[in-house]
Amino acid sequence: MSKKREKEPDLKGTLYSVGVLGAFIIITWFMAFYLFIDRF
Amino acid sequence: MTTVAERAKDLVKVDRRDGKLALAHIYVAFIALAIGGLCGLLQTLVRSGTFTLPWGIGYYQILTVHGVLLGLVLTTYFIFGFQIAAVSRTSGTLTDKQRMLGWVGFWVMTIGTIASATMVLLNQASVLYTFYAPLQAHWIFYAGLALVIVGSWIGGAGQIGKYIEWRKANPGQSSPLLTFMVVVNLSMWIVCSLGVAVEVLFQLLPWSLGWVDKVDVLLSRTLFWYFGHPLVYFWLLPAYMVWYVVIPKVIGGKIFSDALARLSFMLFLLFSIPVGFHHQLVEPGISSFWKFLQVVLTLMVVIPSLLTAFSMFATFEIRGRALGGKGVLGWFKKLPWGDARFLVPFIGMAAFIPAGAGGIINASHQMNQLVHNTIWVTGHFHLTVATTVVLTFFGAAYWLIPHLTGRVLTKQMNKLAIIQAIVWAFGMSIMSGAMHIVGLFGAPRRSDFSTYGGSAQAAEWIPYQIAQAVGGTILFIGIVLVLYIVANLLWFAPKGETEFPVGEISENAEKTPMALENWKIWLTICIALILFAYTVPVIDMIQNAPPGSKGFKLW
């Protein structure tokens, strides 16, 4: 490893964005799952 | 021919002869959009219950025209046009032989398309774009489809030929990313279209010609969906090519990681094909173990999809921060929102968030019962292919067409393109939103307007069907606008130079492992997964075959 490795880019916004995306997928899935359990 | 000096200065233009071949495909794509889009409008009007088709035209006839022209013709032709230009731009001008294969492929596909479309328009093939047996079309419809597939193989061979030539000329080097992606997409297409070719040649054609009386419906649907799911990735991957390679350049940034992009494409190759059973989850005759296995493989596609989402966000954030964006999300405001080449595909990307979430619900085995054969599914693929994919294609057309015609996108046209995308997003939100909601209420897909004998439940669906007609009408305005812009770029825009944007890899990216381009490894895994997922259930289907069905013409 080089000791002068370039500073990693700041990707905090990316972390939050993919987090929100993942949460959206999980929430919608559970909404559908609730409907499924309710109906079948 | 592009010289080495020009290539170094990034002034690379697609050779005029290759451009002509690409444009031929793009012409057909937009003609299909005009006719297919009109049929879409008519469908939503019929389903609202306020409009009856004139001159004895059938609902299922225009539904078939809509599905075939937009789902199969618009997509395949635009993709081929784009891919030919992309290969020529990044790996160099096609040889005469490669270009000849492109033209032969184009004409074989076009003869097939005309043959099939004629039978649909004559009301001899109102079997929808999935052409499920036992609905039986005229044999010319199936023969036309077979020609489309064979034509695509011939044209695809020309593009793959360029890649092979490049690899031979540059041993030990990573191929140009865009060309590599084209070859992944074509590999997937060739492997999957073998299934539909077998269905058409060995089942549907002999049956429609009367050589055999009955067809094995289960096997035909299995062969269809072996092809049908990778088909949706065949639509999507060119959109991903634009996102990964073109958009970074358009926004002035760099490609986040070449290795990540290649890995995600290879994962799509692996996990797009052995997954067709998730379209047959409520079908009898396939054991739940094999359905479960294919559900697991289907959900693996989440990995490359989220890799792509991460990569896009990272590209945007790094660029936005370089432009002075502060805070956690300040970079977002710095992106070039006034540039149609960015904004139009961006709206497509945003649409893929609900589209992907819906797709996971559809594929969740038993939960599929909630949405199966409801208009929710129609709402779903109008977000995936009819928003994510087509808005990305429109955004690409705004630089690709003027690049090929030697014209420029004027400020007014750029503004109109932005308006077009907003109109599209607005119309689709209404139409697809209404489809999703009423689908959960049980409204069926595909079917003509009906009150179902005065059923109270069916009466609840009607307001949503009217909303679909409102959304559909707004979308049709969107189609008129995009056709106006495309006509302008083809024939009327001012002459000038337009760039074919191809991003550079970020200097922070790790070196790409050569294993990502070792086709022996990836194709072996791909074929092994297909054999694993399909061999036993298909043998079971053949050994314990259902009795077979004669053909039906219900229209």
From TrEMBL, chain A:
Q: What is this protein called?
A: Cytochrome c oxidase subunit 2A
The record's listing under Pfam families reads: CoxIIa
Q: What are the UniProt keywords, alphabetically?
A: Membrane, Transmembrane, Transmembrane helix
Entry's transmembrane regions: 15-37
Q: Which organism does this record belong to?
A: Psychrobacillus lasiicapitis
Has UniProt tagged this entry with the keyword Transmembrane? yes
Reading the lineage from the top rank, the first entry is: Bacteria
TrEMBL record, chain B:
Q: Which GO terms describe its biological process?
A: aerobic respiration
List where the protein spans the membrane. Answer: 21-46, 58-80, 101-122, 137-156, 177-204, 224-247, 259-277, 289-316, 342-361, 381-401, 421-442, 462-486, 521-539
One function term, GO molecular function aspect: heme binding
Instruction: State a GO cellular component annotated for this protein.
Output: membrane
Membrane topology reported for the UniProt record:
Multi-pass membrane protein
Location comes to:
Membrane
Protein origin, superkingdom = Bacteria
Protein keywords:
Electron transport, Heme, Iron, Membrane, Metal-binding, Respiratory chain, Transmembrane, Transmembrane helix, Transport
Q: Name one Pfam family in it.
A: COX1
> Which CDD domains does the record match to this protein?
ba3-like_Oxidase_I (cd01660)
Q: Which InterPro entries match?
A: Ba3-like_Oxidase_I (IPR033943), Cyt_c_oxase-like_su1_dom (IPR023616), Cyt_c_oxase-like_su1_sf (IPR036927), Cyt_C_Oxase_1 (IPR000883), Cyt_c_Oxase_su1_BS (IPR023615)
> Residues in domain Cytochrome oxidase subunit I profile?
20-491
Q: Per its UniProt record, what PANTHER family does this chain match? A: CYTOCHROME C OXIDASE SUBUNIT 1, CYTOCHROME C OXIDASE SUBUNIT I
Q: Which family does it belong to?
A: Belongs to the heme-copper respiratory oxidase family.
Q: Indicate what this protein is called per its UniProt record.
A: B(O/a)3-type cytochrome-c oxidase subunit 1
Q: Which organism is it from?
A: Psychrobacillus lasiicapitis
Source taxonomy lineage? Answer: Bacteria, Bacillati, Bacillota, Bacilli, Bacillales
